[in-house]
Amino acid sequence: xxxxxxxxxxxxxxxxxxxxxxxxxxxxxxxxxxxxxxxxxxxxxxxxxxxxxxxxxxxxxxxxxxxxxxxxxxxxxxxxxxxxxxxxxxxxxxxxxxxxxxxxxxxxxxxxxxxxxxxxxxxxxxxxxxxxxxxxxxxxxxxxxxxxxxxxxxxxxxxxxxxxxxxxxxxxxxxxxxxxxxxxxxxxxxxxxxxxxxxxxxxxxxxxxxxxxxxxxxxxxxxxxxxxxxxxxxxxxxxxxxxxxxxxxxxxxxxxxxxxxxxxxxxxxxxxxxxxxxxxxxxxxxxxxxxxxxxxxxxxxxxxxxxxxxxxxxxxxxxxxxxxxxxxxxxxxxxx
Length: 336
Hints:
It is a single chain. Helices cover 44% and strands 17% of the residues. By secondary structure, the chain is α/β, with parallel strands linked by helices. It has 3 domains: 7-58, 434 Repressor (Amino-terminal Domain); 64-158 and 294-321, Response regulator (Rossmann fold, 3-Layer(aba) Sandwich), CATH 3.40.50; 161-292, Response regulator (Rossmann fold). The chain has a 6-stranded parallel beta sheet, sandwiched between helices. The chain has a 6-stranded mixed beta sheet with strand order 7-6-8-9-10-12, with helices on both faces. The protein has 13 helices and 12 strands. The protein has helices at residues 7-14, 18-25, 33-46, 52-58, 75-88, 103-113, 131-139, 161-174, 194-208, 225-236, 250-262, 280-284, 294-311; strands at residues 64-70, 94-100, 121-125, 144-147, 155-159, 180-184, 218-220, 244-247, 272-277, 288-291, 318-321, 324-326.
């Protein structure tokens, strides 16, 4: 037995060409039974172990699925990623993760991953491609599924975030609140397009209730609990503070609650707070929130991509998932 045998060694032992050994490895029918037998015996004798990556590339496949997402350590992204991972774990694909922090990183990764030699399929989470990027995917026949993002020419899994923002705000209006603040990421970010959609739902509910929009009640900041706490402290120390806050994510809602507690403002008696996502922390702090299927959306996105890969059908598929209001302990009618 020879250690570290190569395909050249196998070809020499079997007295065939390297190309013939490659055809045997790829189960090509263009090899006679006798030649196949000699090649297999040579591989067994030499203890030859073909390189899996090289075999996949020779077959025009990588057996990998690339997932590109921003801020992947945040709870909502972790849940979506968990759904993707669990769905792919029972299939013959490796998951390769790309995290992006800037538009430049996003554009770099999307340009590289548009080529089929990089991955067999691609899942983009909360990163809607522009028309040029989408067309490049179509031109290279790269199977792509968007999760929490939308482009009309690509398959996608979404929720109606405008409706979600509307439901949250309408719920607070129904409790009697008219001074309602909106707390979110920056609306012009290339990531998280849902933040702007939830804001549209907030504005729609205010307009329908004939409640004047107050710019001082609209807070935008970098995503995170600490930044949400700091901007909320400024909001709650205004001369005429709001009686309720709709936060576009549970993480920011918890930050708003931190600010309230630090100022001695009782939730929900003196301030109502509604979040969005229903991450695990939301149940722990008994936060009233809009529940969206984070884990399920990731799993369904992975299922959709596997279906495309199995059928080679690139026509865009769409799945719109339901949302619901989860009432817990952070919202009551206003006392002032």
